[in-house]
Specification:
- The structure is a homotetramer.
- By secondary structure, chain A is an alpha/beta fold.
- Chain A folds into 2 domains: 231 residues, TIM Barrel; 39 residues, no CATH class.
- In chain A, strands 1-2-3-4-5-6-7-8 form an 8-stranded parallel barrel, surrounded by 9 helices.
- Chain A is 43% helix and 12% strand.
- Chains B and D meet through α4 and α5 of B and α4 and α5 of D.
Chain lengths: 312, 312, 312, 312
């Protein structure tokens, strides 16, 4: 929990402004408080709280094995540890319109800037699994979007509607129809998703898109496409969706393998941030300063509270 | 949640046997379900659920900012995702003997093999912060150990008593006295901790240690010492305490920096495990097989449940 | 948390034996740890953890506004505070077969004896609302039952399948067909539900029921029917489903009204259990005895732990 | 969760105004969402989220067996179900200044109006247990109050400092000294507690009290004292501290006993609120109206979402 700021910067308003900008913005994935801190410290303007990454980091599968309140707990840690806007991957809203609007209220309360909900069934499956996943009924999903918008307690909160029609093999026309309907139902932006390794259908969608709603993309599969193509296509927001999670897997595997094999930290320790560096990331200095302010001076102290000292 | 095994292997018994072996065993740190899976997959016999790493991954500081039930939630994810023994860093037991024994009962219920409690005050500070942290009253801490032992619901559960006397600057004699008292109070093993960069005081302690209780060490600071020294000293268990957490920080920083700078995944994606690899780690195959078993065949299916297909 | 017993009595086995008895047994509703304690202390053999009552006590509506892990937290408190079998109202299993089997594993872990799942859609609606609620696909629900049975980690755990066909206006024939299918899929008992004020359809169902699976009923609406009718009909288990919750509402309303009106506790206090009585219910004596055992005697004590004294 | 209002009324400001009024105000105890709803519906201006009542309702003892986040979960349900100010019994703040200020931030986020913290040690004991419970160090407790005040994210949030000196047998002089120090440290009000059956020491304290800070009392033990005495003494706030919890115990015991003895609901059902009445308390009408708004009309609906109908 970041203790320095007494009031939350209005992250929702900042995110709304990002969406409104004519340029392309970027969100970087995080899945817990620590990765969220890193995303912010490395200069990203906002954080993508990925459903896949959160589930994976918990040791669960990306099909709503984690309950919506378990996900809420995770994103609360993330919000408490950062100040930049966080966009939560809300899957399908965890049920019907009523479940989705409860989620929205709780996300607003936890200082989340936006939620993305997708037009599939609960429990969801990861979009990169199988073909022809069943989509939500159009009317039902529009109602869900409207319920989310009507329930947000922060007027700048955004609801992003994620269109799975291309991935489900339903074609460009249905994707556009759904996107327009979602926009009319109140969605603040449209996330058009694709699992192709080339960006063609995404770029075509962007070309055919007439509505004012900003477009959001997740180029996990068509990652070789240069950002210029997205800029030229008028994409508002690019989400780097799960790379911190995957990078941490690679690093932990390598670390475990080295230590298991050599029975030694030598050769590993040198490449790691020090414990003191870890303390700095979490702002232990604030804690020492607070002790100085709030704990009795040692001489007057018959207190039993352990006093941290200003040293590592 | 690992679905294959219907019954928990008796992890507590396995850990007890590890402690009883004449050889030196190793635990590797994990801090969430994902890192726990990696530790197991890379061949470690057991997992250290580090208080520092868990707090850090949540975005919190290592001074009991996370409540004991928040920590419990994390270690439950870890236990559900693995089958090897997990030893939980229980800090000071989160209060008095009553809090500590409640923790023990809950850890037993969550299939945790052992807990380590340290002889400091609640809220604790990380051992590597400051000098002369206040220790727990000897009698009180012995009562806490006894309460933990009397409350375990799994007869093979172990309570490891962590001696902070050396770190607190109280000297070798007090360290030994405390360790003996903790052993007599029922501790199944003694963790003797040091923050020196040389292992001398640890090795001296081991030499002077007469009791039968196994010794556990955490060579974070004296990491250059070869394992042979620990074996020769009769150390039962070596804990690699926080290296997965720190390795993930290094990797995520690097990943973020690259992507932020280049606005591209090229050059990063190639070094990451694929999404399919992630699915394999979490055993999505079990899910597809379970669908085949439990969901109606498509032709008979007027069900509304989204069916995952046997393909990625 | 009940601290006296070191091991859980096998509540699942006890409940299984209740179901197998030729006589009629009874479960009484509870919705939190306190009401569960009262149910046990007043002599009931088992506890019904009602979905409606739990939702209501949380201040939520009975349509899965509470997540499954929030419900799990509540029933864990209930299990920790009691020793008799608890049957959890698991609604529709909170999603598909995978969600349902995760629930079952967690309920087994929390010492729950049985779960009841109903053949409706997620999110569910309370059975007493509206007409013609949509039922689950038969094959899907049978698969869900099978998944639950295959996933239980306690061999004596029971899965009760709740048939909503009569309430949904689908007729006796479908009710019987579904019940037989559920039994063949592995259900340990069938709960046949009705919202009529007369027991006729329940008694007819029981008469036509040929399978060996025990029958369970919830006579909330046909409450005037004497228990003898149920005994004669061979009903195994009668659930008094929400009366503690409703009784507490009546009592709290009356108490609030009296105090608000009179601005005084006089006239109310006299009818209430004393604070000491409350302490006795929660076994504070165990706590004082534990202090005596685990805390240093005052003379030796330079501890800072607050010592409770053996007096109220 | 109350869905009607899109924004939280400023409960903290309302509570602050209650404290500032020259008249005596009243808070009524609640311990879960349901009891909180009843307190509000019966006309009380505010709710006391009692630590004893919450612990008891969970089936736990009033010595911090529940973690602070478990208590937070409960008060969040209470806040979501109501609109009047809630004052949370924060025990000793669950640790040192850092734990206490984290609590304050989370309470502000959950729309809680105020917290009361008491000058004892963690883990606390109920004030009605034993004699001479150890008090917090004066300087430490003042630092804790200051940390709480500095950390509130809602400027109208109040911190009430509870003085246990009279109960601990430390005398009137220490009680007054502590109260003044706490006021100077930033406490918005002083709760002066007593376990005597006569109000003399409370009234004397009020007479000797010079500071501007409002006084709060909890007349559980001296309940026969007429409210006029408190008004005359200038008491700002009277807390009826645990009577809903105790009333519910009496009612549930009686209900269980009747049903266990008679094996019938006859004679009980008639005195209980109907299920429909329960639905009204939780505003199911809002849900039906929302369905009408957000779900597709049945004719257009090939949706699979269960539709609630506008009837009971």
């Amino acid at each position: 929990m970041i203790m320095r700021a007494n009031t939350d910067s209005n992250r929702s308003a900042i995110f709304r402004a990002m969406l409104a900008r004519p340029t392309t913005s970027f969100l970087m994935e995080a899945h817990n408080g620590l990765s969220a801190i890193i995303v912010q410290q490395e200069g990203f303007e906002g954080i993508w709280a990925s459903g896949l990454s959160i589930a994976t980091s918990l040791g669960l599968r990306d099909c709503n094995e984690a309950s919506w309140t378990q996900v809420l707990d995770i994103v609360e840690y993330m919000a408490d540890a950062t100040t930049v806007p966080i966009v939560v991957d809300g899957d399908t809203g965890y049920g019907n319109f009523n479940n989705a609007r409860m989620l929205v209220r709780k996300l607003c309360q936890r200082n989340i800037a936006a939620v993305c909900i997708e037009d599939k069934q609960f429990p969801k499956s990861n979009s990169f699994i199988g073909d022809g996943q069943e989509l939500a009924d159009l009317g039902e999903f529009c109602g869900k979007i409207a319920a989310c918008k009507d329930s947000q307690t922060n007027s700048n909160f955004s609801v992003i509607a994620r269109v799975e029609a291309l991935i489900a093999g339903r074609g460009m026309s249905e994707a556009l129809d759904r996107a327009h309907a979602y926009g009319e139902a109140g969605a603040d932006a449209i996330l058009i998703h694709s699992k192709k390794s080339e960006p063609d259908e995404i770029l075509e969608f962007a070309r055919l898109w007439k509505q004012e709603r900003p477009l959001v993309i997740v180029p996990t599969m068509y990652y070789r496409t240069p950002v210029e193509s997205f800029r030229d296509a008028g994409i508002s927001l690019v989400i780097w969706a799960n790379h911190n999670m995957r990078a941490s897997i690679a690093a932990m595997r390598k670390t475990c393998r080295h230590i298991a094999t050599t029975q030694s930290l030598v050769g590993i320790e040198e490449g790691l941030p020090s414990v003191k560096d870890v303390f700095n990331m979490l702002d232990y200095e604030e804690l020492y300063a607070a002790e100085h302010r709030y704990l009795p001076a040692p001489e007057d102290n018959n207190s039993t509270t352990t006093a941290l000292k200003l040293a590592v």
